[in-house]
Amino acid sequence: MAKDNSFYSKIFRLVLPIVIQNLLSAAVSSADVIMLNYVGQSSISAVSLASQYANVLFMVFYGLGTGATMLCAQYYGKGDMQAIQAIEGIAMRFSLAISLVFAGAAMFVPEGMMHIFTTDRELIAIGTSYLRFMSVSYLCWGITEVYLAVLRSVGRVVISTAMNVLAFSLNILLNAVFIFGLFGAPKLGAMGVALATSTSRFIELLSCFVVSCLSKDIKLDFRYLLVKNKMLFSDFVRLSLPALGNDIAWSVAFSMYSVIIGHLGTDAVAANSFVIVVRNFGTILCFGMASAGGILLGNIIGENKLEEAREGAKKLMKLTVVTGAIGGLIILASMPLVLSYASLSEQAMHYLKYMLLINTYYVMGAAVNTTLIAGVFRAGGDSRFGFICDTIDMWCYAVPLGFIAAFALRLPVMWVYFLLCTDEFVKWPWVLKHYKSGKWLNNITRDNLFS
Fold first, then answer.
1. How far apart are CA 382 and CA 385, in angstroms?
2. Contact, 383 vs 442, CB < 8 A?
3. Which pLDDT band holds residue 323 (cuts at 50, 70, 90)?
4. CB atoms within 10 A of CB 210
5. Of 24-33, 36-45, 114-123, 134-143, which has the strongest mean pLDDT?
6. In b/e form, how buried is each residue of 313-347, taking b as 16+ CB within 10 angstroms?
7. Is the CB of residue 18 less than 8 Å from the CB of residue 152?
8. 48, 51, 224, 244, 302 from 76: Cα distances, Å
9. Dihedral sign, CA of 105, 247, 206, 191?
10. H-helix or E-strand containing 317?
11. Contacts of 149 (CB under 8 A, 6+ apart)
12. What is the phi/psi pair of residue 265, to 5°?
């Protein structure tokens, strides 16, 4: 009983700051939609489509961050801080290279980026300006996300959350300032969302440097980029790149959903913009549980307590089912408020209602898969299974099904959306089978790395 209490108390100490962080992240997205609701449906739709690039980039950074977390959490359990510094430098090399590519594209070819999602000239014009303003945020984000992931992996979740609280709170405030032109600022509409995001991300980066100066061990030090260790680099590539590939394959495929919906009309796009915000709130608790569980299990495995980690995974799964159910109830409870607030066309409101109903059960599928693939399996150094599973599920099933349903069979919008939302449940049998096999449970640390 004492061990049970210890596991639950540890995970809830980790979950609370992560949930606060995710809540604020969702609040920023909802603030964008709420404020742009007063600007117009076109602005909502354009920002929703342009934001798909940030969603993809988030998954890239999340993949790199969780890849680094896999190693850092276990090495922290082992007590090897030098290895953690080297892993931070390796992850930073990848994140900086990728963020430079996205920032360059957003600055120099934003119109081409928008053409991928829509042919509507008004949406392209609004989205092009939005992406140019967002380019700075991509660069800052690439640095802070890796550093904060390392902090979380060693249990410094409160500090990590404080950095995000600062950035997200500032983002919401600046959204209002630049969208509506408050306090003498220019009235920028959709462009104001991007300017607010870039400004807040830059200030978050500065605050990370301040925290780094005060920290005794986990620092944001660009000299770590030069630390070389062939074994750690090999482990990072072997373990982290499948996690990165997993998250990219999943996020790009999920963006294809927006491509499909984007070609079904602005009503569908506008309705989906609200749904994304509500679903983000519904998944806050279960995704926070997955992140916290991955960190805690990684620490336990790094201490070589494999049987304790196996029992911890069972407890985590029970918590995930509960949080998935809570997430569905949150979406259901929010429906009257969302439907009364949204200023959309009659057709868009019809789509919004039924899209929200579908998501009341969809979050359970997402919760279980995220906890197992991104939490439990990665804690044990198993990122390859998730990469293979999600790639097959999304690219061989969900995306082709969506395109066939929308453009070949020309099914009604809601049937297309319903079919897209079967993706999480299709892979349940394989994910649960892999969990029960125990093949994911491995101690991936090494001895004598720098001797």
1. 7
2. no
3. very high
4. 11
5. 134-143
6. beebbebbeebbbebbebbeebbeebeeebebeee
7. yes
8. 39, 35, 17, 22, 7
9. positive
10. helix 306-341
11. 64, 65, 66, 68, 69, 72, 91
12. 120, 155
CA distance 209 to 351: 45
Nearest one of 277, 280, 264 to 351, comparing CA atoms? 264
Token pair of 326 as six digits: 């809570």
Cβ neighbours of residue 336 under 8 Å, at least 6 residues apart?
A: none
Is residue 65 within 8 Å of residue 91, measured between CB atoms?
Answer: yes
- For the chain, the first-to-last Cα distance in angstroms comes to 41
pTM reported for the whole predicted model: 0.77
What is the identity of the amino acid at 283? T
Q: What are 275's two structure tokens?
A: 């749904």
Report the pLDDT value the prediction gives residue 29, as an integer from 0 to 100: 61
For 256-297, write each residue's pLDDT tens digit.
Answer: 888 898 888 888 988 888 898 889 888 888 888 888 888 899
Reply yes or no on whether the pLDDT at 237 is more than 80. yes
The CA angle 100-101-103, to the nearest 5 degrees, is 60
